[in-house]
Amino acid sequence: MRRKEIAISAAGKRKILAAGLFLIAIGLAGCATNQHPVNYYMEPPPPLADPQTDQPSPDQVWINGRWVSRGAGFIWERGHWEKPPHPGLAWVPDEWTKQPDRLENTGRTDSNGREIVKLIPGKSVCAPGRWEKPPHPGAVYVPDQWIQQPDGTTLHVPGHWQ
Rg of the Cα trace of the chain? Predict the structure, then answer.
């Protein structure tokens, strides 16, 4: 089969590059702008110290700062006060989980007949922050935590109402 080549002008190449960069930017727009879990190939840095300011009014809730994906990295979005969309709702922060690495069969074998596999690194998944009705009066949301175990492994405890 012969390969067909197509001539593209410099202006056409710039348009294709701009369209590609736009699509990448949309895909990396960040956990903060999506309402569904988003996959990333890296996790954000640890949270920064984000002192809480004075409450502007009794009906506003403090929302902690968070890392937001921008381009190939993350920027810190400072905490702020916000009025819930409906009375009785509480803010549940972004939650990051890391999918485990996995092995994938390539369908090939080496010279000794052993299957060749490749390591697929696990993605980091972000479930964006959201407003929720607590399950009962006085309930407090405990954000997800990563706990270092004595054997060196890390245990993920998902966020939950307490």
Answer: 22
Q: What is the pTM of this model?
A: 0.58
Domain map of the chain by residue range?
Answer: 10-133
What distance in Å separates the CA atoms of residue 32 and residue 7, rounded to the nearest whole number? 41
d(Cα 161, Cα 147) in Å, to the nearest integer? 18
Cα–Cα distance measured from residue 13 to residue 31, given in angstroms and rounded to the nearest whole number: 31
Rounding to the nearest 10 degrees, give the CA dihedral for residues 19, 25, 26, 30: 180
Q: How far is CA 78 from CA 53, 64, 124, 131, in A?
A: 11, 7, 22, 18
Question: Could you give the CA distance from residue 64 to residue 47 in angstroms, rounded to a whole number?
Answer: 9
Q: What is the pLDDT of residues 27-40, one digit of tens each?
A: 334 455 445 666 66
